[in-house]
Amino acid sequence: MKPSVVAAAVFLAGVGQAFAGDPPSPPPGAPTPPASYTPVLSPYANWSGLYIGVNGGYDFGTSNWNSTGNFSTNGGVLGGTLGVNFPYGPVIFGFEGDIDWADVSGNSTVAQCKKAGATTGASCETQINSIGTARARLGYGFDRVLLFVSAGGAFGYARAGLSPPGTFDSGFVLGWAAGGGAEFALVDNWTVKAEYLFVNLGTASCTTVGNCGGTAGVSVSLTESIVRAGINYKFSW
């Protein structure tokens, strides 16, 4: 056999082994492609901790004088919030208190407001200068969204009297509040919320003769609906 034929056969055999064997390894130091990464998301955000905030909104409701009947009240509220959350998994239990400056008022011009001693054209007027609540909250967290209900006590500072002349009986009133809303966790420790509260401030008595239509002992009751929004800063545990 000729030497050239033998050399060709050896070359072809080497090529066949190269194709039949394992692929060559990458040279030393070659980068390995990174494995794909899928982030693991928490089923709920961290709602635990103490929080403070501000709130503001609109108040609309009803005042009732037993001498005049019902009339509407409305106005704005603005104030501060303090609360704490205790999470049990996605279930959030806590307490919240707030106190708001209020510019809420309403009046009635029915005939009973024009009794002896009253200025012609006088109206029976009720005013709310401040309103606050202390409530328990119960909610459920859907990651960054917390849906909640709340209930507890309520208090306020109210005035009732004839206008003109603008003389009023005033004092603190006590009652209860209940409602619900939603809160959304923003970046880091900031949250925003929107809520509705029904507030019953009970019944006060206008005891000064002449302030409430020329008679003493007129009872004045207040029921209010508050729609408001707020922003909170949370100190997480």
Written account of the structure:
This protein has 237 residues and is mainly beta. It has one domain: Porin (Beta Barrel). The chain contains one helix and eight strands. It has one helix spanning 3-20, and strands at 49-65, 69-88, 91-108, 123-142, 145-163, 167-185, 190-206, 218-235. An eight-stranded antiparallel β-barrel has the order 1-2-3-4-5-6-7-8. A hairpin with a 2-residue loop joins strand 4 (123-142) and strand 5 (145-163). It is elongated and about 105 Å long. 30% of the residues are buried. Residues 37-42 have low confidence and may be disordered.
Secondary structure elements and pairings:
Layout: H1 3-20, E1 49-65, E2 69-88, E3 91-108, E4 123-142, E5 145-163, E6 167-185, E7 190-206, E8 218-235
Antiparallel strand pairs: 1-2, 1-8, 2-3, 3-4, 4-5, 5-6, 6-7, 7-8
The count of strands amounts to: 8
**N- to C-terminal separation?**
89 Å
> Main sheet: which strands, in order across?
1-2-3-4-5-6-7-8
The domain tally reads 1
CATH topology title: Porin
- Second CATH tier, the architecture: Beta Barrel
Overall geometry comes to: elongated
Estimate the mean pLDDT confidence. 82
Count of helices? 1
**What is the H/E string?**
HEEEEEEEE
Low-confidence stretches: 37-42
Mind telling me the C-alpha Rg? Answer: 36 Å
Proportion in helices: under 10%
Indicate the multimeric state: single chain
Beta-strand fraction estimate: over 45%
Biggest sheet statistics: 8 strands, antiparallel, barrel
Q: What is the SS-derived class? A: mainly beta
